[in-house]
Amino acid sequence: MTRLRAALPFAAFYAAVFLALGIFLPFWPVYLDHRGLSPAAIGTLMALGTWAKSAANPVAGHLADRLGRRRGVIAGLAALAAIGAVAVQSATGFWPILVCHLLLFASFQAVIPLGESQTMAAVAAGGLDYGRLRLWGSLAFIAGVLGIGESLAGHGPDLIPVAVLLAFVAIVLAAPVLPPAERPADRSRRAPVTALLRDRQYLAFLAAGACLQASHAAYYAFSAVHWKAAGIAPPVVAWLWTEGVVAEILLFAVGGAAVARLGPRGLLLAAGVGGLARWTTLAATTSVPALAAVQWLHGLTFGAAHLGAMYFLTRHAPAGLQTTAQGVYAAVSGGLAMGLMTLTAGWVYDLAGGTAFLLAAGTSGAALAITLAAVRNPHPV
């Protein structure tokens, strides 16, 4: 009972955060399209938001550490994101929408690693199960996707920023309930980052992992827009996205066995193969049965890639550099590479529509080649 009470604040926080993600990721490009932005402009906005996130995350983390008020910073960032969600509804033209988008995107995305640090501190101190806490986020993501998908059929895309706003308010309310995280006992010893930059295995992994994550750029930015243009109803789009998240959850549920059998390298290889099949299909057809068949591959393209990356970092990064290795990977894969691919996908989609997904297939193929050639399984710790 005591452990349950300790877990509830984290479950509530993850539910609020991933409810917002479930609304934002699939349908924010639909809202931007509704506001009259071209695919190239949407790709530019999403790319700039991703790069802004890369800059905002370390700044927010440093501010939280300096102030010693991580929960307050989380609530403040969520409030800034809510202001962006309000302002974008009255913004007109590319540049005003861009300003609102950057405020919303960077502030909201900076909330996630701060909340993760709160959670991991509690897991280490109180023996909580991270997977069970994170599960509430996955369930809320599905609720957000399905809920907004069904609602759009009756209310239209103007509902999207309102729904995102309500989810941000839920984060503001959930943040103060989180227990405080203690500062590390000794922050004086810092291993040199140059040790990572000289590590060829790490650099090869970084290139492969960045390609695998960035291969999702066209999917995140344009799948809902592309399918809507092909006549697929928003509720069906929502179910297709939900199918991918369910596949991810199932992969994580058997993650220990998958790591034991395949190792991090095998998981990265599986993600590359899955990406070749998934993204080629998305480029070739908008048939709902075909899309439903390959959406299960999200368990490989994202789930196996993420699981493989986390275990590679845990087993390979030198003592004293684990956090740095994780931070560099997050910045390169989810920030720099994702932003570049989103921008490129926007240009390609503007010119050739669903052909942009072939760019994703090529990126998965590059990851597969790099992993085969240069990445080895690290030894278990």
UniProtKB/TrEMBL annotation:
Record-given protein name: MFS transporter, PPP family, 3-phenylpropionic acid transporter
Record-annotated Major facilitator superfamily associated domain positions: 11-354
SUPFAM superfamilies linked: MFS general substrate transporter (SSF103473)
Annotated TM spans: 7-28, 72-88, 94-114, 135-153, 159-181, 202-222, 238-260, 267-290, 296-314, 326-349, 355-375
Cell compartment(s), UniProt: Cell inner membrane
One Pfam short name: MFS_1_like
Bilayer topology: Multi-pass membrane protein
Annotated Gene Ontology cellular component terms: plasma membrane
Keyword annotations: Cell inner membrane, Cell membrane, Membrane, Transmembrane, Transmembrane helix, Transport
Gene Ontology MF terms in the entry: lactose binding; lactose:proton symporter activity
Principal cellular location given in the protein's record: membrane
